[in-house]
């Protein structure tokens, strides 16, 4: 049977509509959530991500500001900007678009963001709280993946989830969140031997490798929920996922497309974190 294609774009749209209502209510109480995005350099992919974030803010009524700095900006200059944003009460969330130019330490910059304004969820304090299961800002892509799985109506508890990829921004945190949702989790990576043996046992398969089309029908258990996180530009200029969509759609029960699957959820979770930040900072 053909899989149900999980339209992340539609799910994201529904969540954004809920957020727009919440923002309108906050505005009536004199609170306008504010997000500031800092972009250093002129990487085209980063520019496009930043545009998507500004557009998302506009859609739900969040006040967004974009600070553009050229690639020669020093670490000291960037840290000074973050300090000002930390102190600015109109700024509820701060996001520094990664990657940064090589001469700037990403960890120094992430650690400079006040944890209360860390809407990307990358600060070590946010990560530590996530590991401990404390309330915190969850990183946007993993959080979006969990929401997407839930909105398919899939019960995560008790399922065997297999995650391919162990990066700090996707694989590692999504594995942890799945475990906190009471799945039994297996993490695979580039040194995993006989990958197929693991993936074929997955009720939920999350693929985040950045390797175009590496997962085919042979990797997937019939009826599995397959979440394709990968975004890869192939020679033709087309964007494709890590999963062979045309093959896997005939095996899986649910499958996310690329584009239009996980991507729109990532920005939506950022908007959600910003609204939560505004609420908390206003003591609501
Ligand atoms: P990384 O390159 O940081 O991590 C890739 C992971 O995949 C690593 O853990 C690596 O293993 C593993 N891996 C690579 N090749 C294989 C293989 N052949 N078999 C098994 N495991 C393998 O990537 P990210 O986690 O940052 O991103 C993954 C993908 O998700 C990318 O395509 C990225 O563009 C996309 N992405 C999409 C987002 C969205 O919003 N849609 C947001 C963030 C990322 P090892 O650790 O051993 O090297």
Automatic annotation (TrEMBL):
The keyword NADP applies. InterPro entries: Aminoacid_DH-like_N_sf (IPR046346), NAD(P)-bd_dom_sf (IPR036291), THF_DH/CycHdrlase (IPR000672), THF_DH/CycHdrlase_cat_dom (IPR020630), THF_DH/CycHdrlase_CS (IPR020867), THF_DH/CycHdrlase_NAD-bd_dom (IPR020631). Its EC number is 1.5.1.5, 3.5.4.9. Residues 139-281 form the Tetrahydrofolate dehydrogenase/cyclohydrolase NAD(P)-binding domain. SUPFAM superfamilies: Aminoacid dehydrogenase-like, N-terminal domain (SSF53223), NAD(P)-binding Rossmann-fold domains (SSF51735). It comes from the Bacteria. Pathway: One-carbon metabolism; tetrahydrofolate interconversion. It catalyses: (6R)-5,10-methenyltetrahydrofolate + H2O = (6R)-10-formyltetrahydrofolate + H(+); (6R)-5,10-methylene-5,6,7,8-tetrahydrofolate + NADP(+) = (6R)-5,10-methenyltetrahydrofolate + NADPH. The keyword Hydrolase applies. Keywords: Amino-acid biosynthesis, Histidine biosynthesis, Hydrolase, Methionine biosynthesis, Multifunctional enzyme, NADP, One-carbon metabolism, Oxidoreductase, Purine biosynthesis. Belongs to the tetrahydrofolate dehydrogenase/cyclohydrolase family. Catalyzes the oxidation of 5,10-methylenetetrahydrofolate to 5,10-methenyltetrahydrofolate and then the hydrolysis of 5,10-methenyltetrahydrofolate to 10-formyltetrahydrofolate. HAMAP family: THF_DHG_CYH (MF_01576). This is Bifunctional protein FolD. It comes from Brevibacillus choshinensis.
């Amino acid at each position: 049977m053909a899989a149900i294609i999980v339209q992340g774009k539609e799910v994201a749209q529904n969540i954004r509509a809920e957020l727009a209502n919440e923002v309108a209510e906050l505005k009536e109480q004199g609170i306008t959530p504010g997000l500031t995005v800092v972009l250093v350099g002129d990487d085209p992919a980063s520019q496009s991500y930043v545009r998507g974030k500004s557009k998302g803010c506009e859609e739900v009524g969040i006040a967004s500001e974009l600070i553009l700095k050229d690639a020669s900006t020093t670490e000291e200059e960037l840290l000074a900007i973050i300090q000002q944003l930390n102190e600015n009460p109109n700024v509820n969330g701060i996001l520094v678009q990664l990657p940064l130019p090589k001469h700037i330490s990403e960890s120094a910059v992430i650690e400079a963001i006040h944890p209360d304004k860390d809407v990307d969820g990358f600060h070590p304090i946010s990560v530590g709280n996530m590991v401990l299961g404390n309330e915190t800002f969850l990183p946007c892509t993993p959080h979006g993946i969990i929401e997407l799985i839930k909105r398919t109506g899939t019960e995560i508890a008790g399922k065997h989830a297999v995650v391919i990829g162990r990066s700090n921004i996707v694989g590692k945190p999504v594995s942890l969140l799945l475990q906190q949702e009471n799945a039994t989790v297996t993490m695979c990576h580039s040194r995993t031997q006989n990958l197929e043996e693991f993936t074929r046992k997955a009720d939920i398969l999350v693929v985040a490798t950045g390797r175009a089309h590496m997962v085919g029908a042979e990797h997937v258990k019939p009826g599995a929920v397959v979440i394709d996180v990968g975004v890869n530009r192939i020679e033709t200029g087309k964007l494709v996922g890590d999963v062979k969509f045309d093959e896997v759609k005939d095996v899986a029960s649910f499958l996310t497309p690329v584009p239009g699957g996980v991507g729109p959820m990532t920005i939506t979770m950022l908007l959600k974190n910003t609204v939560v930040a505004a609420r908390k900072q206003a003591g609501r």
